[in-house]
Design brief:
It is a single chain. The longest helix has about 35 residues. This protein has one domain. α4 packs across α8, α7 packs across α8 and α9 packs antiparallel against α10. It is mostly helical and about 240 residues long. Helices cover about 80% and strands about 0% of the residues.
């Protein structure tokens, strides 16, 4: 297992797509903060940390996870990995762990980038109220849910183009269609309540408007990402075990 972990980590850091995807995202954050500074609307460093993951990060994450998860299949190297005696389940969970590790690392990088850049632009640090700590913790938990969704979809489809498309717009389209159907049927049920982008936006907005999160917001921020991880990562694992190479 140790050799497989080292192999996956080495392969991950050698991928140009890692630096391109998240580099573009950081450039977008830089331009956003620079514009805010020039227009006199620069928020505090802690405030900008809270919005760092809400400006395109998840889109670039979806692209990168699809590229990483589908790499071995698209390059026809997965057979060589299995030929070394590694089981399908072991390969799957190592890929999951490695991609989760880089997801958490890049999220922390975005936070640190926004915080330090705001300070360099002359912004105040801000007050570390309870809502800020809750927002950062819940955002990281939601990002784990995003990763589970993106990784599970990529491993289910096992096709690069389709995985990128679904990760970018597929899930949102499903929720829009469900919302329209529910509206037409006049059912009193807010399906968007369970949509990860809506959840992430609600967390950011709550951190900016209230001193402390409500218990319902905290529970929602914890439970919904878990449902995504269990559903999509579990489904990907089950399909991957039975897929012909």
């Amino acid at each position: 297992m140790g050799n497989l972990l080292r192999f996956e980590w080495r392969k991950l850091w050698q991928q140009k797509s890692l630096y391109i995807c998240f580099g573009i995202g950081l450039a977008i954050n830089f331009l956003a903060l620079l514009s805010a500074k020039n227009f006199g609307a620069l928020d505090s460093a802690l405030g900008n940390m809270c919005v760092a993951l809400n400006s395109g990060y998840t889109s670039f994450l979806g692209i990168y996870i699809a590229l990483y998860a589908c790499q071995d299949s698209s390059q026809q190297t997965i057979k060589n990995i299995y030929a070394r005696g590694y089981s399908r389940s072991l390969v799957y969970w190592v890929k999951y762990a490695v991609s989760l590790g880089v997801t958490l690392a890049t999220a922390l990088l975005y936070w640190g980038f926004n915080f330090l850049l705001t300070c360099c632009f002359g912004g105040e640090v801000g007050s570390f109220i309870t809502a800020v700590g809750q927002a950062l913790a819940l955002q990281l938990w939601v990002i784990i849910g995003y990763h589970g969704l993106f990784f599970g979809v990529a491993m289910l489809l096992n096709k690069l183009g389709g995985s990128i498309a679904i990760n970018l717009i597929g899930v949102d389209c499903v929720f829009v269609v469900l919302s329209l159907i529910i509206s037409l049927l006049k059912i009193d049920f807010n399906v968007m309540y369970y949509n990860l982008p809506n959840l992430l936006t609600d967390i950011v907005e709550a951190s900016l408007m209230m001193p402390e999160f409500t218990s319902s917001m905290v529970l929602r921020g914890i439970i919904i990402p878990v449902l995504y991880v269990v559903t999509f990562v579990g489904a990907g694992w089950l399909v991957n075990r039975r897929r012909d190479v």
